[in-house]
Amino acid sequence: MAYKFENWGLYKTDIQMHNGLIKTLYFFTKWQPKKGIPCDLPEGYTVDVNERTGLPHLKRNVDTNISRRPSQQKYNLKRRE
Predict the structure, then answer these.
(1) What mean pLDDT, rounded, does the chain reach?
(2) Is 15 domain-assigned?
(3) Of 58, 25, 55, which is closest to residue 44 (Cα–Cα)?
(4) What's the rounded Cα separation, in Å, for the pair 4 and 55?
(5) Most buried of 21, 41, 55, 69, CB within 10 angstroms?
């Protein structure tokens, strides 16, 4: 079942980055997009509305334990001796 927020539908599409990794992008739209498929609300996210523009967007919940990819983890860098 596709997620709806007011009259906006949530869609997702997979894109290939320059380094070859595949990344999933989520977006809201009122109309059927050329690319993308309807999807449910991803686990660990809530819908927030931009106060200035009134557009919905996904916001990550802080209290959930979402596994991050190694490229997104903070590295413990040490100085060379």
Answers:
(1) 83
(2) yes
(3) 58
(4) 13
(5) 41
